[in-house]
């Protein structure tokens, strides 16, 4: 057994998850592949969205994968960092907007 | 950025055998990844054989005004190996008799060979219709004596193929050296000014994009769209096609991969992106590569690994197309660079 939870080399083995559940694993990868094709959004735009989400969900595999994907697509580091900020802003906004709930509850409980 | 070739730095990898040892050993020897020969064998492509010879690619020498970090030629100002007029005479003799229709001149910076113009003129007389010159662009601005190259290219209807790693300054200069971006932009504008690369012009100007790092090129069509938009908007530059080319793990790029601890991941990525469709059209199937000293190779990459053709005919002075075409192409694990994704040749994707 590995001595740490994350091993960069595990990313290469991602495809193997189908081995223990072939049908839904394959369906997932088909879906995944389809999602990132050129569509109403360009593959480039989707790559930046994926990079932002990768940071929000704090997945080291996805961060590695979509940094590389961005490089492959010619995305600049400035664009990548702005995408990360967009994700971070939504994440902190989502925390802060709950402040309204706290304020509501406070007001309700207070005389 | 390095300022000297591996050869001048006495780097171990300047020794071709060292490169082959790495490419044949490690993760391949241990069976973690399949040998190229076994991979292409699965679709009946082993041994790899040439088809009809179409392109005669001549390397006029390893001398270059740049020392790009990824260079598979290990070219630079310190490399003195350049083709002599005598060897060019042998080439011309072959050009008069070959079935190949395209002459592809590469280097180094082919324009730095003092007999470059003479050779192009003689080859035109010898009946070559399609000339390709792989120009690094900055050479046009490097010295006064090269300023009129766009006019010279135009006169002989040379198809200019130039490298441009990115449409932003930062990425370009990082890969190719400080100031390369600005000089390249200026050179492209000059080529446009004489008519190269304009939408309806038959003066062909294509760009080659290769990644500046340990990753594979993205989709060629999407990259071309981004390059066209950015170069037009920012610099009013036009060109015809963009070829997205994968860096092969040899020479300076191999040195970089190993030094940055990216070698294994990169080989995994190449093998994973293997596309059996691309094997059909790899460059070596329709090209012969000639080195500055007249030896014959399956491709420019094999030339840099000193893997001479597996044929009785090994030198331009003994050239015989029928015998030469009846050969097996020499392959190793660097060949995965030609079959990754949509594939890679000097003409960009092949599948
Ligand atoms: S311009 Fe081309 S030949 Fe010259 S160093 Fe750069 S990659 Fe090598
Ligand atoms: S590296 Fe050369 S021999 Fe190998 S596949 Fe590419 S063109 Fe052919």
Automatic annotation (TrEMBL), chain A:
<dbReference type="GO" id="GO:0051920">
    <property type="term" value="F:peroxiredoxin activity"/>
</dbReference>
<feature type="domain" description="Carboxymuconolactone decarboxylase-like">
    <location>
        <begin position="24"/>
        <end position="101"/>
    </location>
</feature>
<dbReference type="InterPro" id="IPR003779">
    <property type="entry name" value="CMD-like"/>
</dbReference>
<dbReference type="Pfam" id="PF02627">
    <property type="entry name" value="CMD"/>
</dbReference>
<protein>
    <submittedName>
        <fullName>4-carboxymuconolactone decarboxylase</fullName>
    </submittedName>
</protein>
<dbReference type="InterPro" id="IPR004675">
    <property type="entry name" value="AhpD_core"/>
</dbReference>
<dbReference type="InterPro" id="IPR029032">
    <property type="entry name" value="AhpD-like"/>
</dbReference>
<dbReference type="InterPro" id="IPR026445">
    <property type="entry name" value="AlkhydPrxdase/COmuclacdeCOase"/>
</dbReference>
Automatic annotation (TrEMBL), chain B:
<dbReference type="InterPro" id="IPR013785">
    <property type="entry name" value="Aldolase_TIM"/>
</dbReference>
<keyword id="KW-0408">Iron</keyword>
<feature type="domain" description="Radical SAM core">
    <location>
        <begin position="58"/>
        <end position="196"/>
    </location>
</feature>
<dbReference type="InterPro" id="IPR007197">
    <property type="entry name" value="rSAM"/>
</dbReference>
<dbReference type="Pfam" id="PF04055">
    <property type="entry name" value="Radical_SAM"/>
</dbReference>
<dbReference type="Pfam" id="PF12345">
    <property type="entry name" value="DUF3641"/>
</dbReference>
<dbReference type="InterPro" id="IPR024521">
    <property type="entry name" value="ArsS-like_C"/>
</dbReference>
<dbReference type="InterPro" id="IPR058240">
    <property type="entry name" value="rSAM_sf"/>
</dbReference>
<dbReference type="InterPro" id="IPR026351">
    <property type="entry name" value="rSAM_ArsS-like"/>
</dbReference>
<keyword id="KW-0479">Metal-binding</keyword>
<keyword id="KW-0949">S-adenosyl-L-methionine</keyword>
<dbReference type="GO" id="GO:0046872">
    <property type="term" value="F:metal ion binding"/>
</dbReference>
<feature type="domain" description="Arsenosugar biosynthesis radical SAM protein ArsS-like C-terminal">
    <location>
        <begin position="216"/>
        <end position="349"/>
    </location>
</feature>
<keyword id="KW-0411">Iron-sulfur</keyword>
<protein>
    <submittedName>
        <fullName>Radical SAM/Cys-rich domain protein</fullName>
    </submittedName>
</protein>
<dbReference type="GO" id="GO:0003824">
    <property type="term" value="F:catalytic activity"/>
</dbReference>
<dbReference type="GO" id="GO:0051536">
    <property type="term" value="F:iron-sulfur cluster binding"/>
</dbReference>
């Amino acid at each position: 057994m590995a001595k740490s939870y994350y091993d960069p080399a595990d990313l290469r083995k991602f495809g193997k998850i189908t081995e223990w559940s072939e049908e839904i694993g394959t369906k997932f990868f088909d879906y995944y592949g389809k999602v990132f094709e050129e569509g109403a959004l360009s593959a480039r735009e989707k790559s930046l969205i994926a990079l932002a989400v990768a940071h929000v969900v704090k997945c080291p595999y996805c961060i590695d994968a979509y940094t590389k994907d961005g490089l492959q697509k010619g995305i600049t580091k400035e664009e990548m960092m702005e995408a990360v900020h967009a994700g971070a802003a939504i994440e902190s906004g989502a925390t802060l907007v709950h402040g309204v709930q706290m304020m509501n509850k406070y007001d309700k409980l207070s005389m | 950025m390095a300022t000297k070739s591996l050869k001048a730095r006495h780097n171990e990898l300047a020794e071709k055998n060292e490169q082959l040892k790495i490419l044949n050993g490690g993760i391949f020897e241990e069976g973690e990844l399949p040998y190229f020969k076994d991979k292409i064998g699965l679709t009946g492509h082993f041994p790899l054989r040439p088809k009809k010879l179409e392109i005669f690619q001549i390397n006029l020498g390893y001398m270059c005004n740049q020392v790009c970090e990824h260079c598979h030629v290990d070219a630079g100002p310190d490399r003195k190996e350049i083709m002599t007029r005598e060897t060019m005479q042998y080439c011309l003799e072959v050009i008069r008799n070959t079935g190949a229709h395209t002459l592809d001149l590469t280097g180094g910076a082919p324009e730095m060979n003092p007999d470059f113009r003479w050779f192009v003129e003689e080859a035109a007389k010898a009946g070559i219709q399609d000339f390709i010159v792989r120009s690094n662009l900055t050479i046009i601005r490097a010295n006064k004596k090269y300023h009129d190259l766009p006019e010279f290219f135009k006169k002989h209807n040379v198809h200019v193929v130039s490298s441009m790693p990115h449409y932003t300054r930062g990425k370009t200069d990082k890969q190719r050296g400080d100031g390369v971006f600005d000089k390249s932009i200026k050179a492209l504008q000059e080529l446009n000014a004489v008519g190269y690369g304009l939408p309806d012009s038959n003066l062909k100007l294509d760009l080659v994009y290769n990644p500046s790092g340990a990753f594979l090129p993205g989709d060629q069509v999407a990259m071309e769209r981004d390059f066209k938009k950015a170069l037009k908007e920012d610099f009013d530059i036009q060109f015809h096609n963009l070829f997205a080319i994968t860096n092969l793990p040899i020479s300076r790029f191999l040195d970089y991969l190993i030094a940055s601890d990216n070698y294994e991941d990169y080989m995994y990525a190449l093998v994973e992106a293997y596309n059996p469709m691309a094997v059909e059209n790899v460059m070596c199937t329709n090209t012969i590569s000639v080195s500055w000293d007249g030896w014959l190779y399956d491709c420019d990459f094999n030339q840099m690994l000193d893997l001479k053709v597996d044929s009785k005919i090994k030198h331009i002075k003994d050239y015989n197309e029928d015998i030469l075409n009846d050969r097996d192409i020499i392959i190793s694990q660097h060949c995965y660079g030609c079959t990754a994704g949509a594939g890679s040749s000097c003409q960009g994707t092949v599948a």
